[in-house]
Amino acid sequence: MFKRVLIANRGEIAVRIIRACQELDIETIAVYSDADADALHVRLADKAVNIGPADAQESYLNKEAILNAAIQTKADALHPGYGFLSEDADFAEQVTDAGITWIGPMPETIRLVGDKDIARASIMPSGIPMAKGSNPLNSNEEAIRSAKEVGYPVILKPVSGGGGKGMCVARDEEDLKNILKLLVDITKEKYYFEHFIERSRHIEVQVVADNYGEVLHLGERECSLQRRNQKLLEESPSIALTQDMRNRVGALAVKAAKSVHYSNIGTVEFLLDLADNEFYFMEINPRIQVEHGITEVVTGIDLVRTQICIAAGESLDFTQDDVTFTGHAIECRINAEDPDKNFMPSPGHITFLHEPSGPRVRFDSGVTAGLDIEPYYDSLIAKIIVHGRNRGDAIKIMERALHEFHIEGVKTTLPLHNKILRDNYFRTGNIDTQFIKKRMPAYVSAPKKMKGMSDTELARAIIESMYLA
Fold it and tell me: What is the pTM of this model?
């Protein structure tokens, strides 16, 4: 096992990794920017290294500074968390070339699944269902031709990148031409089309694979509640799935992971077409997910600890038959944003914070009272995770937890989560990927031009509000 792990991230995921390392008697090294000198992950780690000024590009995305910190502190391994550098194959390669273990998939795997076009081509021979798609586009003219071949409606996706960013839907050629007028860099960044499934649920499957060919799945997560393709609330399991469907999508996820020789922790994402109950492959995310906690509470398996053990060369100590699922879990992502002002970021000083607690409530956060929410980084404050005997029970526990969570000094998305939980369609499970857009349209309306916003930024915001799935 490792003696010392450097955590190349910040916020709640850095805190989460520190906790897993402490249970394994592993020394932890935090990295921090000037703005994060007093951050919670810095306080909890055994050691901390300053890697630059507040700007993320000069600190948390500064690969040279992070790698130097790992070398200077004699770290055995590096954990990238999620976001930031977790899907940077070049950085993973630099880490391994320096003789430091990368806690995650192999660099070549990250490179393969990070390019959606290559990933689709690699997985297609396995027979996993996929929505009809196009090759990467080289011009607006080619885009219009390809859309006709794929068949409207189509969803335009960037070949690289994740998190739902840059995707937009065209229901006809006029829509597409409007998008292309605004999306001025289609020739600078590679895009491709997939046929857009109108009524669908976003189902993702957690997979875990050791370095010796064993690949298992740990069940599915329901991630259909999204705003502009950004997840707001997740559940496990999905009440849309029968046991046969659950077995089928789990088997598809394992098959997809095996087809790219996957190792460590990852997520295989699907769209469930509600018209025919067929699963269509979307992508593989080669990292721990923000929503990993709901899988942990229904399976009892510590995913971050498992990541570390696999990277250290240990084989899985459980089989697929050992994996059991108990109850129902829900996660709400609480961000420092004002949902009533087009989700404008709300940085500021936290003057008061009371964490929700009590039976079956988990609170994952990287902040405390007295700290600042900085404007330079992701706005996630905390994740509230609850575990109920069934879905109705979990909803009631989450309502209690949201009521108990008090934070002052910044605006948050708490009011939106309260509205979601009270919505009758949500409570009965009648949801799909269009839930927020249809049930709460005020939260996806086209923004007005704000002070300091360039014309390009406004154009992109219009695309997101009008054409995002």
Answer: 0.92
